[in-house]
Amino acid sequence: MKQILILFIFLAGAYTIPLDQVNPRWSLFSNTNGRMQVVDANPLQVDSEPFFNPSTDIQYHLFTRHNPTTSQRLTSDINTVLNSNWNPNNPTRFIIHGVDSDSNSLVSTLCRDQFLANGDHNVIVIDWSAGSNTFVYATARNRVGVTGGTISIFIDNLHRNGLITIENIIVVGFNLGAHVAGNLGKQVTRGRVGAIFGLDPIANLFSAGDTDRLAVNDASYTEGIHTNAGGNGFAEPLARATFYPNWGSSQPGCGIDITGNCAHERAVHLYAESITSNRFIGRQCSGYQQILTQNCPGIGSGTMGGDAVKTLSGVFFIATNSVQPFAQN
Asked: Which residues are in the Lipase domain (predicted)?
């Protein structure tokens, strides 16, 4: 009977189901591609880095207006940067995908195109799929620290060679990539990253007390955009400024979103649109409790997303359209 129940859950594509009656250690959740994955509720029992060497397995794909769709591969060898289209006078943007994904993910392609449309940037799409694509999610979750740390070494090396201004860097991370971005910011040694945008930071096997998650002080400015809060995404505010579009848990236009994947990915669409738009104006709430009660009269306003380092702080509500363009203002 238990086997039949589990099979039904997989076929139905249910969102997060504890398997308490079978084995209290395991549960199921929907990854960024809408497929079901097994979650180990006790990640300490899982080897955190089998078959993953971050110093060699993480890939850095450079896109510029001279090569907007075909990347140039960079490595820790600074000559690969010097012999590329890299322009040290241009702002630099990093994009980091989530679990079970790669450099061709939605966040990578949408944000890359919008950054290049908005300005002459060095856009680096990080591919850490060798570490993120695992059957047991806890293994990928446990790699966020070493992945972020390895990328920070790459950034420090660029700065050491006069190729980057760390304070002007913007990092965008979706899903598990939001926590990789946070760890990157924590471990850069030659300055402080300008801004980190965490797009619906994943909640599974993270808690408010964890030190390896996205946090307020990981950059000069940190912003969270929560679109599936309490589902795939973290519910509580993690960043200096946190936006909850349409109250954060579900999104208009997603219909019967059983896995929550549509709402989860909405954060990517909203941020990508915001890169070339300043029209996502939210109203500031007095605190997270007003998000939970869906009652935020507003004590101020703030613009969500964008392609700049900002100085906002607090919790914000914003209403959006159900289809593109999502901005209502």
From this structure: 49-326
> Measured between alpha carbons, how far is 155 from 201 in angstroms, rounded to an integer?
22
Q: State how far the Cα of 101 lies from the Cα of 218, in Å rounded to an integer.
A: 24
- Residue pLDDT, tens place only, 104-139: 999 999 999 999 999 999 999 999 999 999 989 999
Distance CA 290, CA 282 (A): 14
Distances (CA, A) of 97 to 289, 291, 322: 30, 27, 24
Burial 213-241 (b: 16+ CB within 10 A, else e): bbbbebbbbbbbbbbbbbbbbbbbbbbbb
d(CA 141, CA 189): 23
Whether the Cβ atoms of residue 40 and residue 46 lie closer than 8 Å to each other: yes
CA gap 32, 267 in Å, rounded: 12
* CB contact at 8 A, 175 and 232: yes
- What is the pTM for the complete model shown? 0.87
Rounded to an integer, what distance in angstroms lies between the CA atom of residue 180 and that of residue 163?
23
Q: Is the backbone peptide bond immediately before 325 cis, with ω within 30 degrees of 0? A: yes
Residue ranges of alpha helices (H) inside 101-175 are 106-118, 129-132, 137-141, 144-160
Residues in the chain: 329
CA distance 68 to 186: 30
Residues 6+ positions from 184 with CB-CB distance below 8 Å: 94, 96, 148, 149, 151, 152, 155, 171, 193, 196, 218
Buried b (16+ CB within 10 A) or exposed e, 119-156: eebbbbbbbbbbbbebebbbbbbbbbbbbbbbbbbbbb
Residue 207 CB contacts under 8 Å (≥ 6 apart), including other chains: none
Domains defined for the chain, CATH in brackets: 47-318 (3.40.50.1820)
**62, 72, 84, 107 from 273: Cα distances, Å:** 21, 25, 28, 11
**Distance in Å from the first CA to the final CA of the chain:** 53
